[in-house]
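---------- Forwarded message ----------

FYI, see the Shikimate kinase record below. Original note from H. follows.
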Amino acid sequence: MEEISQVSGSAAELARKALGKRNLVLVGLMGAGKSAIGKLVAQALGIPFIDSDHEIERVSRMTIPELFQAYGEPEFRKLEQRVIRRLLRTGPRVLSTGGGAFINEDTRAAIRDNGLSLWLDADLDVLWERVLKRDNRPLLKTENPKKTLEDLMIARYPIYATAHLRVKSRDVKKDEMVGEVIAALAATLEQSDP
Ligand SMILES: Nc1ncnc2c1ncn2[C@@H]1O[C@H](COP(=O)(O)OP(=O)(O)OP(=O)(O)O)[C@@H](O)[C@H]1O
Ligand SMILES: O=C(O)C1=C[C@@H](O)[C@@H](O)[C@H](O)C1
Ligand SMILES: [Mg+2]
């Protein structure tokens, strides 16, 4: 056990070094685990965690479904863009984004320039099982939400694929996902070392 914690400790150290003052920005579709895994990654790295959906709800004093209903998706994206640009100014942190944030060109450019993006890539069935459990995603309020999720995957995956890093999100223990995210981050340092 001692040996395992030393290995993961050194991976976390390398990952922290790789990040420098930047934010690690988690991107990916609804249910990929950006919020759940992001929070644990931040704890493991000893840096703050922030979630753009939560921050949007905090500043607007409205829930995301309320924002979509009152102002529509385009206004939500503008607010999301402003909030994420602001959040990127402070680091290092782990910043978990909403599922559509990285699809917005301006938000994506800000993330590319100021953060290190990591795509939590998941298969449809994994996402579907997870999003079924909560009723808080306005984009899935359609006649056939599974088909909507699949259409979003087809449209968005080529864009998420432009993130700096990619980790496959699977139904394994959350700690295992955390280890994989940290290893991916640490590997960027090894790659950049002469
Ligand atoms: N590896 C995992 N094993 C089991 N459950 C998981 C795993 N990763 C995430 N989950 C669960 O799946 C659900 C969705 O995860 P989460 O809210 O983190 O997704 P998200 O990517 O932030 O989605 P959104 O874009 O809607 O904010 C949560 O209940 C979370 O606890
Ligand atoms: O995938 C999306 O476009 C969204 C995902 C959620 O995180 C929220 O940001 C909102 O429901 C929109
Ligand atoms: Mg989330």
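H. also flagged this: The radius of gyration is 17 Å.
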